[in-house]
Amino acid sequence: MASGVKPRVKVPKSAEAGEVVTIKTLISHKMESGQRKDKDGNVIPRSIINRFTCDFNGQNVIDVDLFPAISTNPYFEFEATIPEAGDMKFTWYDDDGSVYEESKSITVG
Amino acid sequence: MKFKALTAVAALMVAMPGMSLAEPDDDHLVINGDLEIVTKTAAPAHMEETGIDTIMSGWHFRADETQQLEMDDFDNPGMIFVDQAIDSWNAVEGSAGKSCASCHDDPSSMEGVRAVYPKWNEAAGEVRTIAMQVNDCRTTRMGADAWKYDGGDMASMEALISVQSRGMPVNVAIDGPAQAVWEQGKELYYTRTGQLDLSCASCHELNYGNMIRADHLSQGQINGFPTYRLKNAKLNTVHARFKGCIRDTRAETYNPGSDEFIALELYVASRGNGLSVEGPSVRN
Amino acid sequence: MEFTRRDTLAMGLGAAVLSMVPFRASAAVDAAVEAFTGGAEMATTGIELTAPEIAENGNTVPIAVNAPGATAIMVVAAGNPTPGVATFKFGPLSGSQSASTRIRLAGTQDVVAIAKMADGSFARAASTVKVTIGGCGG
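Output (C-alpha cells, whole complex):
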C-alpha cells in the first residue's frame, strides 16, 4: 500500500432526477513513472495508479486506464447523469495491488 | 573578454518570440465562486523608496491554466494536503497523549494566525514563524518529536493553518521588538551575493514582469505560501523556496529554520502587507 | 571560465526554449493508435482536444477531451518515452463524453486524442504543446 494516499472528491449533495452533474476527483499519489533514477543510477521502478472507475448505484459512469504520463496526484473531471438518489463510488487501482476507495451520497429532488 | 555578471543577466533576460506574457495580467481571483482574494493593492508605506506602487501576488504572473487551478478547492491539488493535515490535527501524538485538537479544538481556531506571522513572541523573546510555533507546541506541550522544518508534515499543517486566514490581509508587524529582525531581513534582501552577484531585489524588485529564460518573474511575494508547485507536484514552504532560489543564483544559501531565513521571511512577508493570504496557492 | 559576449548571448537564447518539435513519427505511438483503431481511418472532426499552447510546467499540464457520441477516448503523447497517457471509457451513466486531467510531457510534442464513436468510426485531434525548460524556478 503506497503511503499517505488520500482521495478528495467533489460531488454535489443533491441533484434533480436525470440531471447531469460535474464530478471532480483528486488523489494524492506519487505516480512513480519508471523513468527516474536514484542517486546510484538505478531506475526507480514504475508504481502508479493504473485504473480509476466511478460507479453510481452499481452502474458505471467512467472507467479510465492510466499510464505513467498522468501527473502526480491524479486529477479527473467528468460528468455523470444522476437518475435517482444513491451512492457514487470511486475506486483507484494501484500497480502494487492496493485499491483505494471513496464514496459519496447524492439525494434527489 | 571576461564573463560579467551584468552581461549574463542581460543575456538571460532575452524576450522570447511568441511569448506575450511580459506583463502580469489583470485577472480577478475568486476562490470557490465566493471568496474574494486581493491580489493587487497599494504597496505598504515601508516600500516607498522601492519604486513599487502596486504589490501583486505571484498568481498574476502565471499562465491562465495555472491560475485556474487555484480557483476551486477541488481543482487545487494543495488541498489534498490540507485534508491530510486535518487528520494530523486530530491525531494524538507524543508523551502527553494530546493532539492539536486537545488544546486548539477545531482548525478554525487558527483564523487570523497566518496573516500576522512571522511575529514576535514575548515569552520566548524571539520572532517566530508558524513552523517554529508548531514545533514548540509539539515538543513542549505534546511531548512529540519536532517535524522537519520544511518537510511534508509541516508544509501540510502550514497549509491547513493558512486556509483559516485565506482572504484576510497579510499584516505582519515590522516595528517594536520585531524591528531589529525586520531590518536584518531587509538587508539580506538587498545584499548582492554569489557568482551571479544577485540580490533578491535584482530580480523581484527591478525585474518583476520580465522573463528570466522561460520563467515569468514575480515580485517574490509569499502571501500564497505554502504553495503547490507544478514542478515538483507538492507543497513547498517559504524557507525551502528561499533556499532553492538563492542556490539557483549560485550563491551560498542558508538552511530552513536559520536566523537569516526567519529574518528574510519577516521582511518578505511585510512586502506583501495588504495582499490576501492565499495559501495553499498553485504556482509553477 | 571566460565567455565572450557572443557566447553568453548564445547560451541565454539557446537555453531559453526547447521548442524543437519532433517531426519523426514515433513507432510506439503508431502501434498504440493501431491497437485502438484496428487500422481504421480517422476523421478529423468530432473530437475536441484542449491543451495549452505553452505549458507553464511539463510536469503538470491540464488537458481536456470532448467527443459527443464517443464510447471511449484514448490520449497519447507522441514525444514521451512511453506514449500512453490515458484511455477514458464512458459508461451508461456518463453525463457527457468528456473528461479533464493533468499530464506530464517530457518536452515539446504533439498530444493526440482519438475517439471511438458509438457507430464504430474514429476521430482524431492533435495539439502541439510547447514545453519550456529553464527559468530561475529552481
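Chain B touches chain C at residues 1-3, 7-8, 11-14, 16, 18-19, 62-66, 68-69, 203, 212-217, 229-233, 241, 244-245, 247-249, 284 (CB under 8 Å).
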